[in-house]
Amino acid sequence: MEKLTVAVARRPESIGRNARIEGWVRTRRDSKGGFSFLELNDGSCLGNLQVVADGSLPNYETDVLRLSSGCGVSVEGALLASSGHGQTTELKAASIRVLGMADPEQYPLQKKRHSFEKLREWAHLRPRTNTFGAVMRVRNCVANSIHRFFQDEGFLYVQTPIITASDCEGAGAMFRVTTLPLDNPPRRDGKVDHAADFFGRPTYLTVSGQLEAEIFATSLGKVYTFGPTFRAENSNTSRHLAEFWMIEPEMAFFDLNDNMDLAERFLRRLVRDTLDQCAEDMRFFEQFIEPGLLTTLEGVASSAFRRVSYTEAIGILERCGAEFEYPVRWGADLQSEHERYLTETVFGTPVVLYDYPRSIKPFYMRVNDDGRTVRAMDVLVPKVGEIIGGSQREERLDVLEGRMREQNLDARDYWWYLDLRRFGTVPHAGFGLGFERVIQFLTGMANIRDVIPFPRTPGSADF
Ligand code: 4AD
Ligand code: MG
Question: Are 224 and 158 a contacting pair, CB within 8 Å?
Fold first, then answer.
């Protein structure tokens, strides 16, 4: 018997086929006429397949009437046109085999509605819910779309290290990697002696693959990374994870404008592909998670982003009359409330902010002629705020060395990075897109913990 997924079985073209469908029971409904309806889901799509189980099945009383939410079954039968609401097909069962029971007294998802907070405690079961199934399908679609976009644009996919000795963002919030015994590490001159450590030196989990990506951009042209990133900041917000995925394109011979053009084209493509390829899941998010989502995304896919300098943005925020928790002042970093005000209230579109004060940005961003600002850019979107951070890179050796001194960085630790400026330095630029932030934006999910399979946040790394 041919195996079909629920997604295929639900299509009108499948009417008349005989097939085996395997999945998990969502609900069972018994009819007075001596037959039952099972709603079957296998994760291939949001919708369920209705199975009609007739009382004449040999195991109707022994098996079918014991089925409950969560049971795993294999059903063979004929796909027929259905008159039921919200479905074109249904499966008339010729046989039903129980693969695994799920005790309704104990199965946590027996009850229909749970809060997202509660579901986080069941990271092993939540993918069986409508919301997480839809989130995971959108994640998959976006991951595919990211690779296709860059491959279409002639980029090379590079893999940068997860264990690293350098700190890209200079934020000092890194996880250590060590095999030294924590209870009694070897010491020399009162300090932990890393000579005896696995790598013979202190090492960390990467906060960004950018510096390594620059190596490949300045030899191979246009490259991108797509990998896990780790930050040990104690940020307990709905937009921060300690482990998240980041996409970092890096391009030789690109200036900041080229960088902004690429970021805009890239985000628009991700939105378009998701709307086109995940239509059913996206209607679910519109209906149950964030009304208005589809209109917002259609707008993003079809209209240009606003480009505003940091200095202009500060002026707008100072004059707008809104009350903010954090004061607005030239030279201070923008807070999430400011970013959201700009993109949601002032412009109603994604906004690209550029030319930030040099004092609040990392050493590698190119210093502008005014001496006060750097060629940084952040892309802000409604609800999420910052989704992309990037810049044109400082390609002038002397300026870069000066910036490192300014930020108390030891040039010896970055000798290879400086070599890229010593030997054939060229203008180049790049950015980082937070994968979970873009999934939040596309699905309307309020908390970033609910768009990644296993969230890691301060005090929480179960599973
Ligand atoms: O702005 P960030 O820190 O930039 C960099 O790391 C650069 N090296 C990127 C580059 O130019 N190649 O981070 C980039 C993006 C942010 O805009 C945000 O979307 C996401 O990564 N991000 C986080 N996402 C989830 N949890 C966190 N703790 C995040 N920190 C940053
Ligand atoms: Mg940033």
Answer: yes
